[in-house]
Amino acid sequence: MKYISTRQQQATNIKTAILKGLADDGGLFMPEYIPQLDSEFFENLPNLTLQEIGFRVAKEFLGESISDDNLKEIIDEVLNFDIPAVRISENIYSLELFHGPTMAFKDVGARFMARMMSYFSEGKPMKVIAATSGDTGSAVASGFFGVPGIEVYILYPKGKVSPLQEKQLTTWGGNIKALEIDGTFDDCQALAKQILSDDELNQKFTLTSANSINIARLIPQSFYYFWAFAQLQKLGKPIVFSVPSGNFGNLTAGLFAKKMGLPIHQFVASTNENDVVPKFLETGNYEAKPSKQTISNAMDVGNPSNFERMKSLFNNDVSEFKKEIESYSFSDEATKKAMQEVRKDFNYTLDPHGAVAYLGLQALRQAQSDKINEDFVGVLLETAHPAKFVEVVEDVLKEKIVIPEKLEAFNKKEKKSVEFPVDFETVKNYLIEEK
Ligand SMILES: *Cc1c(COP(=O)(O)O)cnc(C)c1O
């Protein structure tokens, strides 16, 4: 399997695509085609474990670049926690992606990426650059912590992540450095891109990115769509996924799964007020905007990086986009109401991101209510444990929530970060001088 940039038809292998992160032309790597799984795999799906599914799917993307034994070992390490589809109501399930070490879905992608990079770099020193709006950074830090030869630099927007998220970014020490940027997530993302494409830095160091732009983040995110089917197929209804979206990596991975043959009925791309994609589907025009701050802050993205990948999957055709994806944007007010409603009616606590996904399912049902019996099972991707957003959740639900021990441990540690203005040269000098 070759990997090609979304901008030019520059082809490379998976090892280079993962180690570089971003293509030389500034584009994102994509597999040259989406592999197909055979009918035997699908017939057997309900009998497979999450790890078996992960291995089969990953193998399609990685081919002969890694031995079966090495890949199995990596998959078993990455997926050492459950991803249950929890019933909220008759036709709504929450796919809980938050049972990993940092309690957010980004653990899945980050753990896989860290291990693949370590495998392919064969011990050569490397600097990993990651911009984060909250959860990416901690998952990346957790995934790479203590990996020899790899230094990780995490750029996060000052004052725009939750106190607990900040602790999860800044308390690692060792090979993990937290750069506190006095700007927005978009500024952090732009700085990361500048670092990764700077000639001088690239001459001095082996640099790579660890955002959702790395193809190694996307591949494992497709596993759990299959796993959800393995759990829910027995219900015998069409399955719709509502994906709370920011950079659209999670949704792109879902599109991979569908193209691999998984019969997903429909995707809902659910966003907060950062509504570039819903607007695009409505008008056909893509207009990047500055990001707006919301209570679902991991989705505060004004120019989603994976849009370029989705475009290439749909050959730039808006009508193809529309066939697969309905997209809706929701206010913080609506999100809070949804959290209250689900708590009250179903005794289930959603975090703000999952609540946006819940609203997406409601909106789809409403939009389809005129069609005859469009009865489907809606699966919302619950991307973070509610305790990760404890301030918002307690304020909205007017009740205390229990903080899992895994998270409490971070709170007890001391923050260490270096502050920076939004200025590339300053950050660059730091990288050069920092040992
Ligand atoms: C990153 C994140 C999202 C958005 O995922 P994308 O792949 O960037 O669209 C949603 N929810 C949470 C909790 C996240 O951390």
Automatic annotation (TrEMBL):
Listed cofactors: pyridoxal 5'-phosphate
Entry annotated with the keyword Nucleus: no
Top EC class for this record: lyase
Keyword Amino-acid biosynthesis: yes
Entry EC no(s): 4.2.3.1
Domain Tryptophan synthase beta chain-like PALP: start-end pairs: 95-375
GO molecular function: pyridoxal phosphate binding; threonine synthase activity
Annotated positions of the N6-(pyridoxal phosphate)lysine modification: 106
Classification via InterPro entries: Ser/Thr_deHydtase_PyrdxlP-BS (IPR000634), Thr_synth_N (IPR029144), Thr_synth_N_sf (IPR037158), Thr_synthase-like (IPR004450), Threonine_Synthase (IPR051166), TrpB-like_PALP (IPR001926), TrpB-like_PALP_sf (IPR036052)
Pathway note: Amino-acid biosynthesis; L-threonine biosynthesis; L-threonine from L-aspartate: step 5/5
Pfam family, one: PALP
Catalytic reaction annotation: O-phospho-L-homoserine + H2O = L-threonine + phosphate
Highest taxon listed in the record's lineage: Bacteria
Record domain Threonine synthase N-terminal: where: 2-77
Record-level GO BP terms: threonine biosynthetic process
CDD domains xrefs: Thr-synth_2
Gene3D superfamilies: 3.40.50.1100, Threonine synthase, N-terminal domain
Record's keyword terms, sorted: Amino-acid biosynthesis, Lyase, Pyridoxal phosphate, Threonine biosynthesis
NCBIfam families: thrC (TIGR00260)
Family of this protein: Belongs to the threonine synthase family.
Protein name according to UniProt: Threonine synthase
Source species taxonomy: Bacteria, Pseudomonadati, Bacteroidota, Flavobacteriia, Flavobacteriales
